[in-house]
Design brief:
elongated, Myb/SANT-like domain-containing protein, two-stranded antiparallel ribbon
């Protein structure tokens, strides 16, 4: 799978563990924002795909979702929210059906980014998301 990812995304290079970590982070952030969006008093900012609201509501969200802090500044956005919704809604394995491979992990050679990208973080999320979409099909 890693080789396929690199064939599709020639400008980045990651290990299998790095790709899995990024996917886990995106899933965690998506679930957190989706749950926060349902909280009473929250407002959804469609252009940036983040939750907004009163100071009291934001403080309540910070208690419930400590990691939501990274989405509380004026520049924060989560542009892949809708795409992740298409990918994960109804397909999140939890509890009994949540399977983690028991295959032993072996050390992989650390890979390095090949070319610079103007917006590295956004390109990284989009690359990971495109790869995940293709894997889910």
């Amino acid at each position: 799978m890693v080789k396929e990812f690199h064939l599709r995304n020639k400008f980045v290079s990651y290990t299998k563990a790095q790709i899995q970590d990024k996917e886990s982070q995106l899933k965690r952030d998506y679930k957190m924002l989706k749950a926060a969006r349902m909280q009473s008093g929250s407002k959804w900012k469609e252009q940036r795909n983040i939750v907004e609201g009163s100071v009291a509501m934001r403080e309540k969200l910070m208690v419930t979702f400590p990691k939501i802090k990274k989405f509380q500044n004026n520049k924060a956005s989560f542009l892949v929210f809708d795409a992740l919704g298409e990918l994960y809604d109804g397909h999140l394995a939890e509890g009994t059906y949540n399977f983690t491979s028991i295959e032993s992990q072996h050390e992989e050679e650390t890979l390095h980014q090949i070319d610079d990208v103007e917006d590295g973080a956004q390109a990284e999320e989009e690359s990971a998301l495109n790869w995940l979409r293709n894997e889910m099909v």
